[in-house]
Amino acid sequence: MKTNDFNYNLPLELIAQRPLPQRDASRLMVLHRANGRLEHRRFIDLLDYLRPGDILVGNNSRVIPARLFGQKPTGGKVEILLLENLDPTRWKALVGGKKLQMGAEILLENKDGQLTDVTAAVTAVLDGPQRELTFSRPIDDDLDNLGHTPLPPYIHETLDDAERYQTVYSRPPGSSAAPTAGLHFTGDLLMALRDKGVLFETVTLHVGLDTFKPVEADQVADHVIHSEWASLTTEAARRINDAKLAGGRLIAVGTTAVRTLETAACRSAGILGTLQTISARDAAGETSNMCPWKPVAAFEGPTDLFIYPGYKFRAVDALITNFHLPQSSLLMLVSAFADRAQIMQAYDTAVAEQYRFFSFGDAMLMV
Predict the structure, then answer these.
(1) Which domains are delineated in the chain?
(2) In angstroms, rounded to a whole number, what is the distance separating the alpha carbons of residues 138 and 149?
(3) What's the pLDDT tens digit per position in 207-252?
(4) DSSP characters for 194-215?
């Protein structure tokens, strides 16, 4: 399967540059996988498609102010994008600036552009612009003063309210990008779903910036997906399994929730240490993209589960997601959940119908 099979033409004006004033006012395309039928609704109409006993699962990771600015002792400007916290003072980061090699020192600025007493040193040179930085002290408590919200590279407008790039249920900090399918939910909508008897649960997956990178390998199976830290608590796993056993459907809010839940199901099925190759192995087996249900197992740690067509879903029954970048691993994931031809037709329809794309764009429900 070629990466170019997941390409499509998108007019630049359809890339949403700002969120709508009301979160749940976004459009909702509903794809019925059984026959490919499409419906055009509003996100608030999600209530019409969920049943009492269904369980929604969202990713509650909170975006950190991961974009930092500073300068070298010589005055040269430096931009830092934090990727992963390695220990209290060490971070993996993308670093922009000239001659930032081993031992280089960076003087950090605050949000107003004033120099602070916080410094960072390059303690390892990684791939491309990635560096390991060691800060002069732990910066977790300083990020609100030092950092800026790291919007995706395709958003060129300033965000007035940083909370609009957080879900209303975000809790543990750790993401460099928002789990954007959850941005459509409001507190009132969650309450209305609860009143209907729909359950709500959360998992955690700290989203990395590789989420926005296109797959560069010519063949999909040759792509090595980024690893991200995820967790599912014992209590949440029990509630999810109980809901499934009672006849409810498991509806994932976003691709990050899918990867977490399917990782948990693979673990419960005894598939360990081989997550990167599961899709390829699955493709050699059954023709259906659904396996008999597997319970989810609590876990905490990295996941490198790469889901593309051929993968057999073990846990998730329905999916809420946004419209994804061409040739991205996220587009491959949704093409595995439905069907590549269905998804590409749906995307062509979304372009024709002037849907808004990507992080601040409209949503799709696949049932």
Answers:
(1) 3-63+162-366 (3.40.1780.10), 67-146 (2.40.10.240)
(2) 19
(3) 987 776 789 999 999 998 888 999 999 999 999 999 999 999 999 9
(4) HHHT-EEEEEEE---GGGGPBP
